[in-house]
């Protein structure tokens, strides 16, 4: 199965963050890593930001609460801007910076409320996961020393784990809301 079309930009970015070449890491494998670090948004409100043009307020710019989104080319179940009635807004009516979650409508929206159904990916945590998997792949290697040569293969593992720790730190604090089921 091929990677979803809207994931290709994210996969390319993840390859760059992890030095994950195509010989060892397929697009599908990296998509699986990204899917494990996915945040699904279901009717998340978009924040409208007004512009002032010649003394008039216009509303073109909207912002999603997260970034690093799967692109609309994967299908409406992965990216969909909706009005308050739940009807889809056509992708021809706006442009998107999927990395930042910035949406710019071509026409003034008058401050209309919009919502987003989409998939956002925690790129730094996904990169940390790839680096840990790379360390695991090197785990059976060992240091070798002969007459005047020394190969410290353990340095590769240490480097992978260091990179994993750096990307995990860049991800910031992660939290989850817990609801007690016995209080319902």
Detailed description of the structure:
The mean pLDDT is 93. It is elongated and about 80 Å long. A hairpin with a 2-residue loop joins β2 and β3. The chain is an alpha+beta fold and 184 residues long. The chain is 29% helix and 26% strand. It folds into 2 domains: 38-121, Immunoglobulin-like, CATH 2.60.40; 123-172. The strands form 3 sheets. The protein has a 4-stranded antiparallel beta sheet, with no helix packed on it. The chain has a 3-stranded antiparallel beta sheet with strand order 1-7-4.
Summarize the SSE layout with pairings.
Layout: H1 8-18, H2 27-36, E1 38-45, E2 47-53, E3 56-63, E4 79-82, E5 94-97, E6 102-105, E7 115-121, H3 123-137, E8 144-146, E9 149-151, H4 154-170
Antiparallel strand pairs: 1-7, 2-3, 3-6, 4-7, 5-6, 8-9
Helix pairs in contact: 1-2, 1-3, 2-3, 3-4
Descriptive key words:
single chain; 184 residues; alpha+beta; Immunoglobulin-like; 2 domains; three-stranded antiparallel beta sheet; 4 helices; 29% helix; elongated
